[in-house]
């Protein structure tokens, strides 16, 4: 073969190689192309759009670079792009023809740049565009021609700009739009026809703008598919009649944190599908009659942080599906007792932070709260008294009905209804309190009602106990007599820290409790005090059958009798209250379930999956409750995660088997480790014995030194030591022998033990 021809062929290959490499590798040099059709060029310090070697890329990510301008030819070789991400750059201008070569583009992200305007026609070639992000720029104005030909657009984000006006028919080309974000702008004026063509719009966010009123009935009239409308954080002072009339599909409306002082009575007309209305953080002083009646499906209603001073007794009467009602931090002083009587599914009622006047006008409300609590339908409601001064800081739940006196300017007294009295301390029935002329001392703090009170027994009871003791034969066993209530059982721990309050001393319920009756030889103890019952008669609280949202609580009790006054009174059963509360979380919500006296188990429902709960069992004696400390009659549990709910039935038995197997494995492992340790210890001792050389009959400090038998090479320290001791003859003893470790004097431990000192030379 001719060498010149070989050389010529090699040169041709070298010349063709550089031109062929770009075709085989379409990825630009600074980018990462793990997928052949996804060019990842984000955060590469680029200042211009890189050139592509091929046009088959579908996704191009240029986010987080320093690109300042987009020219007409930057994307000329990216004709097949479906997604283009230009967010977090420094783009200030885009050439009107920059996107002409991207007819297949479906997603365009231009957020977090420096755009002040987008020229008309710039987006017109993007006929298939479905998602457009222009958020967090400096856009001051948008025009109808800006979005022309984008009838396939589904989501548009323009939030975080400086838009002040929404012009007439500004979105008329976006007939397929579903989601529109306009929050965090400076919108002061919305033209009545700005949203006229958005018949498919579902979500509209206009929060954090500068609107002062919502009064035009045409503004939202065409948004018939809208489900969420957010108008919070504006400067709205007035909402007119029928402004939401055509929003038949709207399920959430937020007017929070505005300056609304007045709502027309027909402002909420047409919202028949609304499920959540947030109007907290405004300046409302009243709720007009009939305002809430159109909200027939409302489930959540928030009027917190307003200036409400009163509520009509029929304000919520038409809201059959209301579950959550927030009236926190208003100026309410009283509520009608039947204002919530028709809200049968209401379970979360927030009345905290009002100026409640605890007089007899709240007695019906107190009775209603006790009734729904006993049925387990309502979370704990905190109604903290502001007036009168004697009850200030105390909670309505724990105030006696006898303490709810008529107001000073009334000429008649309120009617008192029957109902169980509930307090955090023990006590006898309400009738007994009235006859004794004593009132329960209620104590409260800012976070939770705490009451620690015990009534002293009446003179009649003490006299009856004394007579029974006189009739009792001598030598009778009095093991069931409780002299005084133990202070450790009556003091209630702080609700927040579960520690005992240092500034409170428990009040005992009498000089003694006689738990024996004199008419029978063997008699069951008689219970008059709930704290005594909790301490001595409730046992074995446990939980079982834990699922993602239910748990069954079990307990047992010792035998007892319920004490009643009067010869004809029947023995009342002692009932139980089961408290369950989230444990270890700042947002707590104690709930109660009441059980009959014969019950020894309760199934708690509507729990949250994967949450830790504390469950306590408390006795109810004569309508009075004594809350137990967290360490007494309480149990902890963790509900199953939602994904494990199907396995909840078999989880308990599986856990027991796993526990037994783990304990057995640990025991075997401990035996093996112990055996290895003992074996190694014995081996070390044997090795030490074998390696030690005991020098016997070689040298004694108590024998005369014989220089003839010593070598001249003997260590000088032995000679000096011997010379300082008196020479005397004595029999050789084991304690007189000097032992030298083998490795100090010898290279090998196999030397003879012949008594010679020659081998021990330093």
What does this structure look like?
The protein is of the alpha/beta class. Among the domains are: 92 residues, Alpha-Beta Horseshoe (Leucine-rich repeat, LRR (right-handed beta-alpha superhelix)); 144 residues, Leucine-rich repeat, LRR (right-handed beta-alpha superhelix); 40 residues; 71 residues, no CATH class. 16% of the residues lie in helices and 15% in strands. The protein has 9 helices and 34 strands. The strands form 8 sheets. The chain has a 15-stranded mixed sheet with strand order 1-2-3-5-7-8-9-11-13-15-17-19-20-21-22, with no helix packed on it. Strands 29, 30, 32, 33 and 34 form a 5-stranded antiparallel sheet that branches. A 3-stranded parallel sheet has the order 14-16-18, with no helix packed on it. A hairpin with a 2-residue loop joins strand 32 and strand 33. It is flat, with a radius of gyration of 44 Å.
Question: Secondary structure elements and their pairing?
Answer:
Layout: H1 3-24, E1 32-35, E2 38-40, E3 59-61, E4 69-70, E5 83-85, E6 93-94, E7 107-109, E8 131-133, E9 155-157, E10 165-166, E11 179-181, E12 189-190, E13 203-205, E14 213-214, E15 228-230, E16 238-239, E17 252-254, E18 262-263, E19 276-278, E20 300-302, E21 324-326, E22 348-350, E23 356-357, H2 363-374, E24 385-387, H3 430-436, H4 459-471, H5 487-490, E25 526-527, H6 530-537, E26 538-544, E27 551-557, E28 561-562, E29 575-582, E30 591-595, E31 601-604, E32 612-621, E33 624-625, E34 634-638, H7 648-691, H8 716-723, H9 742-745
Parallel strand pairs: 2-3, 3-5, 4-6, 5-7, 7-8, 8-9, 9-11, 10-12, 11-13, 13-15, 14-16, 15-17, 16-18, 17-19, 19-20, 20-21, 21-22, 23-24, 25-28
Antiparallel strand pairs: 1-2, 26-27, 27-31, 29-30, 29-32, 32-33, 32-34
């Amino acid at each position: 073969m001719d060498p010149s021809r070989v050389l010529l062929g090699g040169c041709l290959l070298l010349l063709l190689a550089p031109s062929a490499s770009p075709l085989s590798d379409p990825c630009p040099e600074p980018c990462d192309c793990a997928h052949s059709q996804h060019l990842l060029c984000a955060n590469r310090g680029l200042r211009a759009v890189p050139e592509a070697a091929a046009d088959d890329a579908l996704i191009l990510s240029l986010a987080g670079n320093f690109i300042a301008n987009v020219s007409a030819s930057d994307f000329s070789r990216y004709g097949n792009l479906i997604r283009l991400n230009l967010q977090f750059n420094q783009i200030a201008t885009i050439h009107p023809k920059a996107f002409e070569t991207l007819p297949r583009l479906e997603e365009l992200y231009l957020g977090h740049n420096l755009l002040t305007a987008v020229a008309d026609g710039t987006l017109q070639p993007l006929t298939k565009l479905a998602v457009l992000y222009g958020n967090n720029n400096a856009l001051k104005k948008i025009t109808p021609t800006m979005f022309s030909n984008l009838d396939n657009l589904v989501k548009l984000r323009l939030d975080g700009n400086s838009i002040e006006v929404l012009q007439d028919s500004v979105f008329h080309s976006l007939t397929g739009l579903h989601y529109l974000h306009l929050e965090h702008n400076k919108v002061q004026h919305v033209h009545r026809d700005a949203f006229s063509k958005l018949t498919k719009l579902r979500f509209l966010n206009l929060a954090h703008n500068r609107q002062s009123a919502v009064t035009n009935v045409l503004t939202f009239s065409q948004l018939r598919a809208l489900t969420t409308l957010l108008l919070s954080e504006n400067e709205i002072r007035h909402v007119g009649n029928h402004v939401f009339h055509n929003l038949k599909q709207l399920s959430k409306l937020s007017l929070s944190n505005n300056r609304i002082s007045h709502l027309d009575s027909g402002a909420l007309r047409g919202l028949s599908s609304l499920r959540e209305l947030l109007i907290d953080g405004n300046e409302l002083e009243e709720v007009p009659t009939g305002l809430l009646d159109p909200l027939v499906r409302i489930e959540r209603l928030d009027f917190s942080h307003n200036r409400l001073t009163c509520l009509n007794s029929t304000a919520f009467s038409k809201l059959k599906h209301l579950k959550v009602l927030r009236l926190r931090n208003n100026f309410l002083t009283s509520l009608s007792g039947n204002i919530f009587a028709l809200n049968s599914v209401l379970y979360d009622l927030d009345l905290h932070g009002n100026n409640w006047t605890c007089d007899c006008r709240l007695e019906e409300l107190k009775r209603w709260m006790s009734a729904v609590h006993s049925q387990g339908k309502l979370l704990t409601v905190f109604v903290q008294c502001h007036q009168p001064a004697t009850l200030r800081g105390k909670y309505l739940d724990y105030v006696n009905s006898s303490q709810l006196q008529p107001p000073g300017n009334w000429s008649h007294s309120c009617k008192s209804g029957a109902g169980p009295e509930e307090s955090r301390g023990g006590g006898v029935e309400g009738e007994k309190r009235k006859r004794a002329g004593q009132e329960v001392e209620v104590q409260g703090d800012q976070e939770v009602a705490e009451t620690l009170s015990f009534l002293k027994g009446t003179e009649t009871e003490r006299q009856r106990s004394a007579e029974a003791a006189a009739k009792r034969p001598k030598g009778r066993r009095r093991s069931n007599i409780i002299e005084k209530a133990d202070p450790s059982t009556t003091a209630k721990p702080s609700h927040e820290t579960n520690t005992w309050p240092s500034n409170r001393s428990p009040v005992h319920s009498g000089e003694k409790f006689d738990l024996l009756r004199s008419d029978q030889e063997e008699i069951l103890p008689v219970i008059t005090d709930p704290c005594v019952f909790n301490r001595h008669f409730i046992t074995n609280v446990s939980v079982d059958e834990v699922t993602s949202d239910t748990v069954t609580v079990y307990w047992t009790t010792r035998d007892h009798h319920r004490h009643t006054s009067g010869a004809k009174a029947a023995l009342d059963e002692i009932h139980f209250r089961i408290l369950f509360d989230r444990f270890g979380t700042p947002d707590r919500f104690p709930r109660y379930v009441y059980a009959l006296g014969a019950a020894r188990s309760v199934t708690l429902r509507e729990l949250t999956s994967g949450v830790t709960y504390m469950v306590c069992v408390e006795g109810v004696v004569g309508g009075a409750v004594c809350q137990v400390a967290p360490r007494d009659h309480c149990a902890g549990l963790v509900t199953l995660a939602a994904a494990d709910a199907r396995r909840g039935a078999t989880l308990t038995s599986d856990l027991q088997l796993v526990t037994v197997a783990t304990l057995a494995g640990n025991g075997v492992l401990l035996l093996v480790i112990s055996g290895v340790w003992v074996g190694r210890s014995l081996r070390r001792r044997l090795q030490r014995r074998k390696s030690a050389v005991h020098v016997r009959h070689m040298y004694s400090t108590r024998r005369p030194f014989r220089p003839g038998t010593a070598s001249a090479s003997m260590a000088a320290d032995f000679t000096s030591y011997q010379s300082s001791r008196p020479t005397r003859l004595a029999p050789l003893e084991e304690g007189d022998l000097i032992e030298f470790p083998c490795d100090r004097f010898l290279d090998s431990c196999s030397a003879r033990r012949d008594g010679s000192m020659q081998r021990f030379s330093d």
